[in-house]
TrEMBL record:
A motif (DGA/G) lies at residues 154-156. This is Patatin. Residues 9-167 form the PNPLA domain. A motif (GXGXXG) lies at residues 13-18.
Length: 264
């Protein structure tokens, strides 16, 4: 019999590390836990949109690997960014053809950052693809996405674990972070220093929301992977899956969230 529990899951951003979210969803689904509402930032918004559309976690992994959507990014000759996020719009339309939040099988919210006002904004209705692209628009790397009068960049800048859309609407909230940093004894170059500093900043606004989650899943050491390291896709998926199975084993109360069957 299907449970009436409302289960929300918030998925962090983290570039290609977000593929680990698919492993987490795979593990939860195998345990009989299916979210009834999803919220995502950046890579979490992309994974969330595909999952809420109805693709299984393994199907999404296959799509990401086979399309290698990073190859669709083209240089943006302007002061705003070096790559055009809009160049992958056609790819999104192939796999999300309805382009409408209301057509998703599971309700979804995505967060982006209004760069002019310095505020986080949330989208859960209307056109889908624009907000998803805005949510994953890394500032300085991609041109901002313009929606209405808003110049929008990566949602993870201000809120990399967007639990706010789930607050008050879900009985339980599962937070998932894909940026855990391993300890490092020696920072060998400036690139690693900058990358590590950026991840630390992202994690700060994740961990500030951790206490508001009923359950929090974070595969260890994912911060060692590069933002665009697509060759590690299967490894990242497996890391998320294995950590979820370990987490369920060590936190059996999460099994009280079982709803046994997927939402229609």
């Amino acid at each position: 019999m299907k449970s009436n529990l409302k289960i929300g899951i918030a998925l962090s951003g983290g570039g290609v590390r977000g593929i680990s979210h698919l492993g987490v969803l795979q593990g939860l689904n195998e345990a009989g836990i299916f979210p009834t509402q999803v919220s995502g930032a950046s890579a979490g918004a992309i994974a969330g949109a595909m999952y809420c559309h109805g693709y299984s976690p393994s199907e999404i992994l296959k799509i990401i690997v086979e399309t290698n959507y990073f190859k669709f990014l083209r240089p943006a000759i302007s002061w705003k960014g070096i790559l055009k996020m809009s160049s992958i719009e056609g790819l999104f339309k192939t796999y999300l053809p309805h382009n409408d939040f209301s057509k998703l099988k599971i309700p979804l919210s995505v967060t982006a950052t209004d760069i002019k006002k310095g505020k986080a904004v949330y989208f859960s209705e209307g056109e889908l693809i624009g907000p998803v692209m805005a949510s994953s628009c890394i500032p300085g790397m991609f041109e901002p996405i313009v929606i209405g009068n808003k110049y929008l960049v990566d949602g993870g800048v201000l809120n990399n674990l967007p639990i706010e859309p789930l607050d008050g609407t879900c009985d339980y909230v599962i937070g998932v972070n894909c940026n855990h940093l391993p300890e490092e004894s020696d920072i060998k170059n400036m690139r690693r220093l900058i990358e590590r500093s950026v991840i630390m900043t992202m994690n700060y606004n994740v961990y500030s929301r951790k206490s508001q989650c009923d359950f929090f899943i974070e595969a260890p050491g994912l911060g060692k992977y590069g933002v665009f390291d697509i060759k590690k896709a299967s490894e990242l998926f497996q890391a998320g899956y294995e950590e979820t199975m370990r987490y369920i084993d060590q936190n059996p109360t999460i099994l009280e969230l079982k709803n046994l069957e997927k939402n229609p």
